[in-house]
Amino acid sequence: MAMTVIVTRDVPERTRGFLASLMPEPAPGVYAAGNLSRAVRERAWAVVSDWHGETQRGSLVLLWKDDKAPGGLGLQVLGTPPCRLADLDGVLVSVW
Questions:
Q1: pLDDT tens figures, 23-54
Q2: Cα 37 from Cα 79, distance rounded (Å)
Q3: How many angstroms from the chain centroid is the CA of residue 25?
Q4: What is the pLDDT of residues 20-30, one digit of tens each?
């Protein structure tokens, strides 16, 4: 289990309520959990992905510790702008 953070912007209340049922919301639109399992993280992302596909409203960014990803940080994005992480000579950068 590893730290998981989801950042939302302009998402429906249903999405915010669902995420709040799984993780504390330390700041508006930011959800964080120190020990969320991979299975729960993947299921939660599947649910919000389905809902986002229906509404096409807002954006969500999911971050988690992933030793196989550049910089050890996993990233998934719904909405705009799309982003990915890249390792540039040992420095983790966002690619838009």
A1: 999 999 999 999 999 999 999 999 999 999 99
A2: 24
A3: 13
A4: 999 999 999 99
pTM of the shown model = 0.83
Q: What are phi and psi of 12, to 5 degrees?
A: -60, 155
Per-residue HEC secondary structure of the chain comes to: CEEEEEEEECCCHHHHHHHHHHCCCCECCEEEEEEECHHHHHHHHHHHHHHHHHHCCCEEEEEEECCCCHHHEEEEEECCCCCEEEEECCEEEEEC
Query: For residue 64, what are the domain limits?
Result: 2-95
What CATH number is attached to the domain comprising 11?
A: 3.30.70.240
Tokens of 6: 């989801």
What's the number of domains the chain is made of? Answer: 1
